[in-house]
Amino acid sequence: MSDKQLVSMERQDGIGVIIVDNPPVNALSPGVPDGIVACVREGNADPTIKAMVLMGAGRSFIAGADIRQFGKERPRAKLGERSYDILDTSEKPIVAAIHGFALGGGLETAMSCNYRIAVPSAKVGQPEVLIGIIPGGGGTQRLPRLIGPKAALDIIVTGRHVPADEAKKLGIIDELLDAKADLRTAAVAFAKKIADRRPLPRISEADEKLKEAHDDPGMFDAMRKSIARKARGQKAPWSCIDAVEAATKLPFAEGMKREAEIFSTLENSPEARALRYAFFAEREAGRIPDLPKDVPIREIKSAAVVGAGTMGGGIAMSFADFGIPVRIIEATPEAMQRGMQKIRDNYAVSVKRGSLKQDEMEKRLARIHPADGYEAIGDADVVIEAVFEEMPPKKEVFAKLDTVMKPGALMLSNTSALNIDEMAAMTQRPEDVAGSHFFSPANVMKLLEVVRGAKTSAGTMASVMALGRKIGKISVGCGNCDGFLANRSRGPFGTEMNIMLEEGALPEQVDKGMVDFGYPMGPFAVADLAGLDIGLASRRRRAAENPNYRKMPIPDRIAELGRYGQKTGAGYYRYEKGDRTPYPDPVVTEIIRSTAKELGVEQHEFTEEEILTRLLFASVNEACKIIEEGIAYRASDVDVMWLYGFGFPRHRGGLMYWADGIGVKVVYDQIARWHQRFGERWKPANLLRHLAETGTPFREAKPGKPR
Ligand code: T1G
């Protein structure tokens, strides 16, 4: 496809309409910038053309540079000769007509035009920091000139997508169209209206708004302070601040050079490569390898949830948040009352924080309906079971659902580990049963683990994956086994962290190691947040099922004292009233030391590196077993689960990507040594040995037959 066809110009009433047509999101792939340059030059040379409009074909304006090109050798136009520069120096006015997304190089392209108009559903932004770089097409120099450095800092450092109405208020958009307006028609009319206006407004020449930084020079350090904790170990967020600060100190052309210098130091940094990997891994996760592309997806217009506890309530909110009416049933009116009150309280907290408007809260609450009994939910398109995490009550629920749910309804379980086939066997329609494992808090966490049972149909699997996307989740599919992909791969991490306490480590030491690595919280603090009673119940269940199950005396003794974590004011740590800060507790240290003595475990000093690799290699090994069994469909799905389910630091790409950075052979050799030292629990997975012997990276691991 020649450049021209990626970008073309049509003449309409003396206006040159330049259309970028590079599906799916009109990225600035090779040929697109040149195509824009060619059209602008043609427009300026054509006397019949008085002004131009730049717009995108299909569902979006321009979603930025082509991320697939980063890190690759590619032709680069010099500063001053890029499409941004040609647009900026056009003799005739150019109007950017925005629908869908104007992100990264897309917004930079629009800011290189003289005017910007948009439909109300459009979103604009500079999300480059989310892939470990900074805007490289003038965004750090033009945006502060357009809306002031402070607002520009917020957009560039957070990478957030700005809705069109806010973009209008900020001054990014000159005209916000009516929702019913036809974009092209409105754009041509706008272009005709401004065609003769001179001088042409050029953001590169508009320094007025930069004065804001002279009045408040401390804004850059204030931003640095505000991101210190969240951006530790990363480069891009800090570089974003440096580049915007440069815009307030240097003339435009100098600032552009500074931006390009900073950009070139980041493009191929380990952080940028890891974040690019995560970007595409997330999209790949949405595809289940052996599902036919044309499998019919069931439309979901109504939902139901069985159980109004913490998870049930959060799941109901997820549906309501995305406009789907949902009915909830509970065993008793008191439990229903508690559940509904919790939902109201959760929304009230969001309103108080300003992340939700009061009227929107009312709208969402109005979509959540307490219902009386199973009969009241029979016509829902999907039902999710979220009762206590034990098999008998879950089987009972599925038996009842089978008698009331309409044909074709999706029947799902929110279990985080229990056997989906056992629940499906309680129905006459196991093909409509699957797992939909939400992570707590269900209305906040973006991950949805979609579990395929032995009899789950392709249609059900594809429909649940699509449902996850519809309610704003990242859907990742996997097969059915104890703990599925997420919790099973995390299991050995949990085992190792408690065994290291027996060998002499302390919770605060392990947590410091993982926080330094980039986790928002250490694993022991996370356990206290989740509640140690859940861990105790799960260990007791496993010990009951498997006589060889390795007991965990330290966490058992802590929990048996009623120390369930934050909710009881003490767990692995102690907590002050109303304060979530974890304080080391000598009571716990004493339990650890005395239990270790009793067990006669040899004590040793732990380095941060041993803490990190003991915890993560244990899960890498388990993940290899999960991949070789066909439970995971690809190694990158493990990474997406760890990024969105377990807070793995995103700038490290994910568990398997990080392990690839260390090297399969190094990981294998260390695990083999621990196998010798610690025994069976460290037995290397066959797949791991195979990868080490063949020098194949984890990300190229071939999964077993999908289950
Ligand atoms: N480059 C290459 N492919 C892209 C792409 C991009 N910028 N954006 C999307 N895709 C692919 C994606 O992989 C998927 O492919 C398909 O499009 C649909 O995407 C110079 C340096 C726009 C909000 O960071 O955030 O500009 O899986 O499934 O959920 O300063 O895509 O179907 O094969 O995500 O509707 C800055 C990245 C780049 C935006 C749409 N831009 N994209 O979300 O669809 S750096 C970004 C997104 C830059 C300049 C710098 C989202 C979206 P496939 P999707 P969606």
Each distinct ligand = (2S,3S)-3-hydroxy-2-methylbutanoyl-COA
The main sheet orders its strands as 12-11-10-13-14-15-16-17
Number of strands: 19
Number of helices: 30
Estimate what percentage of residues fall within beta strands. Answer: 5-15%
Global geometry: globular
Tell me about the biggest sheet? 8 strands, mixed
**Could you estimate the helical fraction of the residues in percent?**
40-55%
Unreliable spans are: none
Straight-line distance between termini: 40 Å
Structural class: alpha/beta
Report the average pLDDT across residues: 96
- Radius of gyration, in Å, reads 28 Å
Overview in brief:
The protein is of the alpha/beta class and 707 residues long. A hairpin with a 2-residue loop joins strand 1 (7-12) and strand 2 (15-20).
What's the topology here?
Blueprint: H1 3-6, E1 7-12, E2 15-20, H2 32-45, E3 51-56, H3 83-88, E4 94-98, E5 101-103, H4 105-112, E6 115-118, E7 123-125, H5 139-147, H6 149-158, E8 162-163, H7 164-170, E9 175-176, H8 183-194, H9 211-215, H10 219-227, H11 236-249, H12 252-266, H13 270-284, E10 303-306, H14 310-321, E11 326-329, H15 333-353, H16 358-366, E12 368-370, E13 382-385, H17 391-404, E14 410-413, H18 420-424, E15 433-438, E16 447-452, H19 458-470, E17 474-479, H20 486-502, H21 507-517, H22 523-530, H23 532-545, H24 553-560, E18 573-574, E19 583-584, H25 586-599, H26 608-628, H27 635-645, H28 655-662, H29 664-678, H30 686-694
Parallel strand pairs: 2-3, 3-4, 4-6, 5-7, 6-9, 10-11, 10-13, 11-12, 13-14, 14-15, 16-17
Antiparallel strand pairs: 1-2, 7-8, 15-16, 18-19
Helix pairs in contact: 4-5, 5-6, 5-11, 6-11, 10-11, 11-12, 13-27, 14-15, 20-26, 21-26, 23-24, 24-25, 29-30
